[in-house]
C-alpha cells in the first residue's frame, strides 16, 4: 500500500515539526526567563523602603484594631469619668436627704431625750443616726457633723459663711460642734463628707481637697418647733 504522502512531503512535515518543537522549547525557555526576571525584580522592589511604605499605606488588615486603639481607650476613660461624676452627685443627694431626715429629731425636740452625754457623744450619736438613714455609699469614718444654734436667719447665714470648712484646698472642721436645740430657735445642721475622686487627673474641677478628694457638704437650716424644753 503506498504511503498517503510522497517521501519528500514526509520529510518536509518532519522538518516542520522539528522547527515548531524547537520554537516551543525556546518559547518555554523565554517564559521561564521572564518569570524568573519578574520575580527577582518584584523581590527587589519589595525590599525598597518606598515600596514598604506604599504597601503599609495600602494594606487595610487590622484597621479596626488600630482605630479602636486610638478611639476606644479615650472613650472608655471618658465614660468612666462620667460614671464617677454621676456617682458623686448621687452620693451628694443621698447625704442631703439623710441630713434632712435626721434633723427632724432636732426640729421636734426629740434629740433632747435621744442624745445624752458630752457634746462629742451627742455628735457621734447624731452621726450614727444619719448614717443609718443613708445607703451604703458613704464612708461614715470620713463624715463630720456640725450643729449650731442662732438667734435669727441673718446671723445663721453670716455664721455659716464665715465658718466654711474648705479653706485653701484643706478641710478645717476644728470649729465644728454640737449645740442642743431649744424651742423656736434657728438651727443650722451641716454634714461634710470627704469623697475620693479616682480620676482626678481628668476631673480636676471636681477636686477641692488636696489632689484626689472633694468635700461634699449638706446643709439644712430651720426653726425648731415650740416644744417643751427639758426641765433642769
Précis, in short:
This protein has seven helices and five strands, in the order H-H-H-H-H-H-E-H-E-E-E-E.
Write up this protein.
The model has no long low-confidence stretch (mean pLDDT 81). The longest helix is centred in the N-terminal third of the chain and has 40 residues, at 7-46. The protein has 232 residues and is an alpha+beta fold. It has helices at 7-46, 49-58, 63-102, 104-107, 111-114, 119-132, 153-162; strands at 143-150, 166-167, 170-171, 186-196, 213-223. The chain has a 3-stranded antiparallel β-sheet with strand order 1-4-5. Strands 2-3 form a two-stranded antiparallel sheet. The termini are far apart. The chain has a domain at 73-223. It is rod-shaped and about 145 Å long.
**Mean of all residue-level pLDDT scores:** 81
Order of helices and strands: HHHHHHEHEEEE
Major β-sheet annotation = 3 strands, antiparallel
Number of strands: 5
Helix content: 40-55%
Q: What proportion of the residues form beta strands (DSSP E)?
A: 5-15%
The secondary structure category is: alpha+beta
Rounded to the nearest angstrom, the distance between the terminal CA atoms is 156 Å
Question: What spatial form do the alpha-carbon principal axes imply?
Answer: rod-shaped
Strand ordering within the main sheet = 1-4-5
Low-confidence segments: none
Number of helices: 7
Rg computed from alpha carbons, rounded to a whole number of angstroms: 44 Å
Amino acid at each position: 500500500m503506498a504511503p498517503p504522502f510522497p517521501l519528500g512531503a514526509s520529510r518536509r512535515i518532519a522538518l516542520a515539526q522539528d522547527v515548531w518543537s524547537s520554537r516551543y522549547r525556546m518559547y518555554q525557555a523565554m517564559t521561564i526567563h521572564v518569570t524568573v526576571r519578574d520575580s527577582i525584580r518584584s523581590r527587589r522592589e519589595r525590599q525598597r523602603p518606598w515600596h514598604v511604605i506604599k504597601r503599609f499605606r495600602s494594606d487595610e488588615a487590622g484597621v479596626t484594631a488600630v482605630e479602636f486603639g486610638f478611639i476606644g481607650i479615650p472613650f472608655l476613660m471618658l465614660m468612666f469619668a462620667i460614671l464617677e461624676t454621676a456617682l458623686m452627685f448621687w452620693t451628694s443627694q443621698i447625704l442631703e436627704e439623710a441630713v434632712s431626715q435626721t434633723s427632724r429629731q432636732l426640729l421636734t425636740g426629740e434629740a433632747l431625750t435621744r442624745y445624752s452625754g458630752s457634746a462629742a457623744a451627742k455628735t457621734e450619736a447624731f452621726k450614727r443616726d444619719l448614717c443609718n438613714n443613708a445607703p451604703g455609699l458613704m464612708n461614715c469614718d470620713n463624715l463630720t457633723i456640725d450643729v449650731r444654734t442662732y438667734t435669727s436667719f441673718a446671723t445663721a447665714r453670716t455664721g455659716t459663711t464665715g465658718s466654711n470648712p474648705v479653706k485653701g484646698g484643706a478641710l478645717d472642721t476644728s470649729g465644728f460642734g454640737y449645740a442642743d436645740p431649744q424651742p423656736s430657735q434657728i438651727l443650722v445642721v451641716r454634714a461634710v463628707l470627704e469623697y475620693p475622686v479616682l480620676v482626678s487627673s481628668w476631673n480636676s474641677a471636681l477636686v477641692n481637697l488636696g489632689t484626689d478628694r472633694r468635700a461634699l457638704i449638706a446643709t439644712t437650716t430651720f426653726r425648731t418647733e415650740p416644744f417643751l424644753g427639758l426641765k433642769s
